[in-house]
Write a structure and sequence with these properties.
Keywords: Hydrolase
Largest sheet: 7 strands, mixed
Number of helices: 7
Radius of gyration: 18 Å
CATH class: Alpha Beta
GO molecular function, one term: formimidoylglutamase activity
EC number: 3.5.3.8
Strand content: 5-15%
Pfam families: FGase (PF05013)
Bound molecules: N-(iminomethyl)-L-glutamic acid
Structural class: alpha/beta
Shape: globular
Protein name: Formiminoglutamase
Oligomer: single chain
């Protein structure tokens, strides 16, 4: 399975330590599929179909110095670090994707028939990637909470604006997820909503995307941890994306400017809870 070589490599997980009480988590910007995992997939382009394309490039220029960043470069099609590690569904009874997804968001099978990961393979991927990501994020949260008494986590995502299997119509530009108000202080959510309201983007709180495992698991406002998910419709920053094209969309920095102008005060609001 290549466990040892992957352990030895370790360059898939990026942790940038800063001292502000603010952490950015980027669980889905990865597009890497190590050779050890490539064989069963039906088509390698499918493994990046649901990536949060270029979102780290959107955030990096606007992050205040001292921001802590945790990011994985591994494709979510290998294992999704934003899903419960025990394999429970994020949205029981609704269409979604799982810990080691077997389809993309559209429902297209990722694997050749019979090549889907078996339970021991899922467990191996969980230990290799999910556990270290969660540990890194948890350690950074504890480090900064010990220092400041309170810390904010922004779990950053983007998604194609039209995915009929997951939601009707076109997604709002900004989708704030706070686990229906459980993952952050009410005043934090209110400040973020005020920023969204002032922005040129449509927005909703706790609509189709209420926050994934990261937001729900780490958010604990009573204990000083405000955790918020931002799900950004990709047409808010990608100039061109043919939604039937399974290849990598282009990134042009100009296309992200308007979004960055909204995200900067969003980040400021999280820095002053
Ligand atoms: N682009 C990614 N979206 C997240 C949304 C989590 C949620 O459902 O709120 C994901 O699939 O993990």
């Amino acid at each position: 399975m290549g466990e040892a070589s992957l352990r030895g490599g370790g360059d898939w997980l990026e942790v940038v330590e800063g001292n502000l009480p603010f952490i950015v988590s980027l669980p889905h910007t990865g597009t890497t599929v190590p050779d050890e995992f490539a064989a069963g997939f039906a088509n390698t382009k499918l493994t990046t179909r649901d990536a949060d394309w270029h979102l780290h490039q959107v955030f990096r220029p606007i992050l205040p110095a001292g921001t802590t960043v945790v990011r994985t470069d591994i494709s979510r099609s290998i294992i999704d670090v934003n899903r419960p590690p025990d394999g429970q569904s994020l949205y029981p009874g609704q269409a979604t994707t799982g810990l080691c997804p077997t389809t993309d968001f559209d429902g297209t099978p990722l694997y050749r028939p019979g090549s889907e990961p078996a339970p021991n393979e899922i467990e191996c991927r969980r230990r290799l990637f999910h556990e270290p990501y969660a540990r890194a994020l948890g350690e950074q949260i504890e480090r900064l909470r010990a220092r400041h008494g309170r810390v904010a986590v922004l779990d950053c995502h983007s998604i194609r604006p039209r995915i009929p299997r997951l939601f009707d119509g076109t997604l709002p530009g900004l989708n704030i997820g706070t686990d229906d108000g459980r993952s952050c202080l009410p005043r934090v959510q209110a400040k973020l909503e005020a920023v969204a309201e002032q922005s040129p983007f449509t927005w909703v709180s706790n609509g189709r995307f209420k926050g994934g495992w990261i937001t729900r698991h780490f958010g604990n406002p009573k204990a000083g941890i405000d955790s918020v998910q931002i799900e950004i419709a990709m047409n808010a920053y990608l100039l061109v994306r043919d939604e039937n094209d399974y290849g990598a969309p282009e990134y042009e920095a100009d296309g992200a400017r308007l979004l960055q102008q909204t995200l900067s005060p969003f980040i400021e609001a999280l820095l002053q809870p």
